[in-house]
């Protein structure tokens, strides 16, 4: 029977400890609630924190996401910077080629104008030579006529003698 009493006492002690544990847990919960109302919270390591653990976790996640975002923006800026440099280089090359093309076009226009001027000079020279040829032809005909007259005169003079 003594064992039964001891068993009962142990059982009762266990019940008491359960009740005490429940009371202690209830007290801790009330303390946590009071601290939560005051803006203080306990984390998973039972450290006192100002922020709610969920908010702190979300803040940490947001901070990591922001860091990733900033890194990605940095990479994006590097890529865009490289593209801008490439586009600037291509623009300079295009401008150089454009200037070369304009120079070549102006050179062709200049050559065409020179050829046109040369052609006009040659045509003027041809016209001048034609006029000179006509004058020489007329002079030749006149000289032939004079020669014929002189030959006729000589023939008549010889016949009269």
Automatic annotation (TrEMBL):
GO biological process per UniProt: cilium assembly; protein localization to cilium
Domain of life: Eukaryota
PANTHER family: INTRAFLAGELLAR TRANSPORT PROTEIN 20 HOMOLOG
Location relative to the cell: Cell projection, Cilium
Coiled-coil boundaries: 108-139
Region (Disordered), start-end ranges: 1-26
Source organism (scientific name): Pleurodeles waltl
Keywords: Cell projection, Coiled coil
Full protein name: Intraflagellar transport protein 20 homolog
GO CC terms in record: centrosome; ciliary basal body; ciliary base; cytoplasm; intraciliary transport particle; neuron projection; non-motile cilium
Main location as per UniProt: other
Biased composition (Basic and acidic residues): 11-23
InterPro entries: FT20
